[in-house]
């Protein structure tokens, strides 16, 4: 089962809002900040980069613990924040969880920052 | 006096690193995450958008408190985080502090997220 919460899609009030494209209302700012909050942790940034650099763009949680030097529950906690923010998807296969980055979510977040 | 800490410049180890461009080391991830942490708060996202939308791209702190509904010390605290992250500059003129967004810093952060 794949769990993912796509963020900043067309149905999202912040889909096309940018930081420098006009004064944002509270809802738009909340949507934008939610993703950046998930990205505002060095372990989570490393985890995303490790997953993106993995064969086939997919990584087993069993291969993520050693590079970041953290326990599996801690890595799992960080990954749940990234999945909740729509930045990664999670698929359980047998004993292990496998993760993929959602490039569209990273690109959407990037667009929110680009000068308009 | 203008205070600003340009981030993600050529002298920064994370200047050209991207989240999906290969496994990041701890220092690169730290540099990237630091800026996103500053952006991971809805009030700070709104403040940046309000400043960017102001006449001449500059806003007095005296004009920022009412739109976000917060006291001046609280707004000042949020702004200090944005200045420390290199996302805004601060200039004291007489009684008031004036802020500008640093578009290059937003663009650098955006590039760190774009698919490579």
Automatic annotation (TrEMBL), chains A, B:
Pfam family, one: HTH_5
InterPro entries in the record: ArsR-like_HTH, ArsR_HTH, HTH_ArsR_DNA-bd_dom, HTH_MetalResp_TranReg, WH-like_DNA-bd_sf, WH_DNA-bd_sf
Entry GO MF terms: DNA binding; DNA-binding transcription factor activity
Transmembrane segments: none
Keywords, sorted A to Z: DNA-binding, Transcription, Transcription regulation
Top-level taxon: Bacteria
Domain HTH arsR-type: 24-116
Stretches assigned to coiled coil: none
PROSITE patterns recorded: HTH_ARSR_1, HTH_ARSR_2
CDD domains named among the record's database cross-references: HTH_ARSR
Cited SMART domains: HTH_ARSR (SM00418)
NCBIfam families for the chain: HTH_metalloreg
Protein name: ArsR family transcriptional regulator
Organism whose genome encodes this protein: Conyzicola lurida
